[in-house]
Amino acid sequence: MSPATPVPHAVTSADAIVVGAGLAGLVATAELVDAGKRVLLVDQEPAASLGGQAWWSFGGLFLVDTPEQRRMGIKDSLELARQDWFASAGFDRTEDYWPTRWAEAYLNFAAGEKRAWLKERGVGFFPVVGWAERGGYTALAHGNSVPRFHIVWGTGPAILEPFITRVREGVRAGLVTALHRHRVDELLLEGGTSTGGSTVVGVRGTVLEASTAARGQASGREAAGEFELRASAVIVTSGGIGGNHDLVRAQWPARLGPAPTNMLSGVPASVDGRMIAISEAAGARLINGDRMWHYTEGIVNHDPVWPRHGIRILPGPSSLWLDATGTRLPAPLFPGFDTLGTMEYLLKTGYEHSWFVLTQKIIEKEFALSGSEQNPDLTGKDLRLLAKRVTPGAPGPVEAFKSKGEDFVVADSLRALIAGMQQRSPEVQINAAQVEREVLARDRELDNDFSKDAQITAIRQARHYRGDRLIRVASPHKLLDRANGPLIAVKLHLLTRKSLGGIETDLSARALGADGNPVPGLYAAGEAAGFGGGGVHGYRSLEGTFLGGCLFTGRTAGRAVAAAL
C-alpha cells in the first residue's frame, strides 16, 4: 500500500513536510498535491502501516440530515446537531475559544459538503444509520438525539482509499516523496527576535532500520542513520497518546476517578504521543491534555496484532451491565448510552472491570466488534456475508470471540454462569445472590408491555427506530427463558483509544504559541490537534467524529499551507 519506496536523503527539501501518514496526513498531502505542491511525507512506521489507525476503524462518520437518515425516517438538522454537540462538549475553559470555533465549523461541514465531498471521491455508505452515544438524560445533556453514525461501505480502508490513490498519483507526478521508517526527533527552528518567535523550517530525526513488521505490529526502534529535511511549512499529523499507557496515566483526569492500573490498547503501540511533545518544544501550545476518550467495553483479542491488543464491543442496549461485584449499573448507564459517564462510575467503585450478562438472542442481534478486520462483510463489501446479519446466528467474528475469547462465559444456568464469572475474576468476590436478584428482578419487568425499569423502556423505545429494530436491538425477552439461551457473560476491560486535547490551532490549522500567535511554519491536524483547535469535542464525543475530524482538519491544513506558499 506504500505510495513509494523510501528514498532516504534523495530529496531533502520541499514545499511542505507532513509528519504522520495516517488519515489526516494523507488528506493534507492529497490537498497539497491538488495544489501542485511538493511534499515530503514522513512516518516512523514501515510502509505496511500506511493509513495508521484509520485502517483499523469501523468506518463510522458523523453526518447530519443525510439521505440515509431521511430514508430511515430520521429528522435531523444542523440546529439539533449543534444542540447535542455543545451539550456533550461542555466547553467551560478559556482554552476552549478555538475548539468552540472549530466545533461550529465542523458541524457546518458535517451538515453541508462533507457527504458530497466524500461521495465525489467514491466513498459510499451502508444504508442503516447507527445510533451511538444515546445519552439517556435530558435534551440539553450529553448524547445524540437521533442516529447519526454513518458506516462507510468498506469501513476504514475505504475511507483511506481515495486519499492513498491521490498520494500515489502525486508520487508518480514527482510531487510526493514518502519516507517511511523516518522518526522525527526535532523540529528545526530559525530566527526569532524580541518581537517574534522562531520559524519552523523543517525536521531532523532518525532513520530507523528497515522492518518487515505487518500492519500494526511493533516495528522496532533501532537506528540506522540520521536525516534532516527542510520546507516552508511542517504539518504535524502524528496522532495521539493511546498506545502509551504511561502517558495516558500521567494525563488522567481526577474527575474520571483514579488512573487505571491495567488497560487494553485499542490502538497500536506506535500511537505514542512523541510528536505532540516535540511540537511543544518548538513553541506550540498544548491544551486540554486531560480530556480523553477511552472505552469500558474492551475485550482481550484472542488473535492480537499489537501489545495488549483489545477490541471494543459495540453493544446494543439490552445486555444487563453489572460492576465487578455483581451490582447493576444505575440508569442511564446502559450499553451504548454514555461512555465516559460509565467509565467514571466504574472507576469510582474501586474496580477496573465490569460484566455484561446477556443471552444468545442478544449476542446474535446486538453485538458488533469495532474494527475493519472484525467486520469482513462490511470491509470486503460482501453482500452475501452481510445478509447473514439478519439471519439466525451471531456474526462469525463475534462467535469466534465467544468460543476463543478469554473474557466470555457461556452456561445453561445462572448459577453456572456466575461460577464461570468468578473463575475469570478470582481477585474480586462476586455477590452471587445480588446477581441473581438483579436478573430475576429485571425479568419480572417483562411480564407487562410497560415497566418502571428504565433500561426495558429504553429498549422498547429504541425499537421504534427502524434501523434498530431491523439489525441492532433484540426484542425484549427474559434472560432466564431457555428459549433465548444459552446465557452469556462477558468480562469488560478499559480500552484506550483517543486523545481529545492536543496542539492548539486556529481555523487555518496553524499551531499557536503560548502568546496566542501562530508559530510560523507550523501546522497541526488530526488527533495531534485534538481533531481541531486542541479539543473540538470538549469533554465528550458524539462518536463518528474522530475520522471526520481527521478528514476536516487534514483538508483544512493542506489547503491553508497551499494557499500560504
From TrEMBL:
Keywords: Flavoprotein, Oxidoreductase. Pfam families: FAD_binding_2. Residues 15-547 form the FAD-dependent oxidoreductase 2 FAD-binding domain. This is FAD-binding dehydrogenase. GO terms for molecular function: steroid dehydrogenase activity, acting on the CH-CH group of donors. It comes from Cryobacterium arcticum.
